[in-house]
Amino acid sequence: MKLHPPEKPLKFLRWFCRKDYLEEIEGDLVELFEQESDQSPRRARRAFAWRVLKYLRPGFIRSFHSRPLAPTAMLKHNLLITLRSFQRYKASFLINLIGLTAGLACAVVLYLWIQDELHIDRYHANDARLYQVLQHSDEQGNIATGAGTAGILARAITAELPEVEQATTVVRAQWFSEKGVLTVGDTRMRLGGQYAESNYFQVFTCPLLAGNPGKALTDKYSILLSETTAQRLFGTTEDLLGKVVEWKVGFSTGLFHITGIFEDVPPASSTPFDVMLSFDVFLDDHPWLREWGNSDPNTFLVVRPGADIDALNLKLTKLLQRNLKESRHALSLQRYSERYLHGRYENGVPAGGRILYVQLFSVIAVFLVGIACINFMNLSTARASRRVKEVGIKKAIGAARSALVVQYLQESLLMAFLSLGVATAAVWVLLPSINGLTGKTLMLTWDMDLILPAFGVTLLTGVLAGSYPALYLSGFRPARVLKGKPVTPTGGLLARRGLVVFQFVVSVILIVTVLVVYRQMDYIQSRNLGYNRDHVVMFELEMTNQPTEEFLAEGGTFEHNVEAFLQEIRQIPGVTQVANSAHNITGYHGRLGGIDWREGEDDNEMMFANLEVGYDFTQALRIRIVEGKPFLRDSGTGRRGVIFNQAAIDRMGLADPVGKTLRLWGQEKEIVGVVENFHFTSLYEKVEPLVMQLEPRGTTMMIRLRAGEERETLARLETLYHRHMAGLTFDYRFLDDTYQALYAAEQRISTLSRYFAGIAILISCLGLFGLAAFTAERREKEIGIRKILGSGDARIVWLLSADFAHMVLIAVVVAIPISYIAARQWLSGFAYSTSLDWWLFAGAGVLALLVALLTVALQTIRAARVNPVQSLTKE
């Protein structure tokens, strides 16, 4: 067996010896080693090492200081080579450009969306110390969490807890089921109004253009207008202080004088409003809020620097329990700016919220850019055989590997930044449509908040996409390349296959995501809610709270006014049923306790959703009565009667409830009926106990229209509306649309997910298309020989497609369990959700496989039909 010289001394010689002497010296040393190894291999190795060391002297040691090319010349040379490469390999260039552009464009859009979400409610100066009080109610082992607290909680906190710098009570505009009406002369406007205590401006950032923030809300009958509202009403924001306006919302109405003009609430607020009034006047209209047992207003705190939040939570709970005896409620604090993204609680424990969508889109952005990078890597390494001679010649004439790495990285970086430019232009053009899809006002602002992340991501994309091809191509040995020997290692092929598998794993997961979200949205839309929402139109009735002169003469009341209006609606052709309520059935209803149904026992702790409705409500919405009867005008019970849903009766443990009496806030009530459970909140929540009270004065009109006559009937309703409420727009909405609005975020996520899944599949298939084209080109002569030997087109197509089919099948097998776990986790957030059928996952896998095979077939069929004579004679 022939012995070889010792490896380490030989490598050392090649490292330090001058290139012009190396071949001769190495040849002599190897020849001496071969002669001596026949006698004693060990002595021959030692002698070889010693002779190498003897050459380690001046004259034989090479210079380690190379004279680098001028940086400008090097960059110019590399740029020229890159542009020639783009021009020569147009198909690869276009595939990479489209893929990276699509990935980076999606990343820019998602970055804008995520940044917008993360900045909601963070503009307040006290952001780091601003908290909202949450109330946790233990209802027979189930802990319900809500933002509603006692109306007098803030004042008690200010008096008793020194850790709190400021505490204020706010009733958000969103608390009301309808907007209020602001009247100035003949001008009437529907606006969102919130009520706040006088220290509001010391807690929240709300700059005033006019007025004193310390005194603006001290007067009970003060009102502040937003800048836009003032401009619309008066055409100016100046000299408005002291002017009198009329405000009405619900049953509350009055004259107020303007004490301030505030800047419009920024888009970064989760709770916009147009006007602000004093909380004191709200207390006068809702006197029960002075009781500790209510839970409607919101309480906000600014804690002192260094305050212990855990200790403060305990103190808040003890404060509540001191004032509400035997209470099973607890209070805790949540950062106000976190409430928007982390708003869901399950059994008293945080359970996510919109932050899940932020995390989802962050992952999607990374995946989309990642699979675009994979395309670049795969196509660059796949076409390496076209560039091996270039690499070999450069290395043979002295190019260092580092210089080649820099060249190929420069090529990938140029591609990445070129793609960023195209992506930015595409986003700028499509941004209005994107805003329509997202419901936001995203903007491309050229500031460092966008430029630095975009530059950083693009730089990282270029380095990641180009690093593997650069190291791969620059690693070829010139002697092997120039002798025409194979240079493609098995590792490169395996890496390409692994990257293709990863691409389709991501694509299949996104396809499953789209299918599951679509199926859940379809389930939400088709689920029996316990009431019929089809062809029901709603609008708000605005009437004076005082009786008209005609009704005064007849002893009439506001209730009579509402009933008279309802009677006029009933006469309109096309109207089949009419009802009214004090709430939108899918809106916020408030929660109340204080219901005692067991004599001698305190039942105050159980909380009920509260829905105040007029006569005919259950009939108009077709809510099924399980026991008893609906509210009837001639029943004799009048407002003493209450109706519970089945969930309330089950929780209360009442048998034969109809006719039984109970006390609600000290007033005796009689159960006149029990309704079947119906969904008055989103399907994220289980149907909770509900009490329905009679309120004939409710101004939310619900009218069921005859199918097919909606347009004509709405025109008649509008005419009637304007006859009674001149100056107001007939602002109607369909009940089904109101229900769908509960899931607006999910609908947008569903739509965006479909686009992103489509883009992911497009990018993956572009890469597959490029690899299939390269494979067909590389095996062109093989295909020609097989055709001459009798292989048919179908056989050749399968031969070229089989590897790709196997890779996609592996991706499907990997993706299905991952997507199942993710889908099950998302659906667990709904109290009522669709099922995860096997065909959802099988369908996603089949779809991915079909799309991949069709993409590959575009190339393989064309390759299979080429005349074999052309293939074999082609050089």
UniProtKB/TrEMBL annotation:
Residues 94-318, 505-714 form the MacB-like periplasmic core domain. The keyword Nucleus does not apply. Keywords: Cell membrane, Membrane, Transmembrane, Transmembrane helix. It is found in: Cell membrane. It holds the Pfam family FtsX. Its main location: membrane. The chain crosses the membrane at residues 93-114, 356-377, 413-431, 451-473, 494-518, 755-776, 796-818, 838-858. InterPro entries: ABC3_permease_C, MacB_PCD, Macrolide_Exporter_MacB, Permease_put_prefix. It is a multi-pass membrane protein. It comes from the Bacteria. Residues 363-474, 756-868 form the ABC3 transporter permease C-terminal domain. GO terms for molecular function: transmembrane transporter activity. One of its GO terms (cellular component) is plasma membrane. This is ABC transporter permease. It comes from Dawidia cretensis.
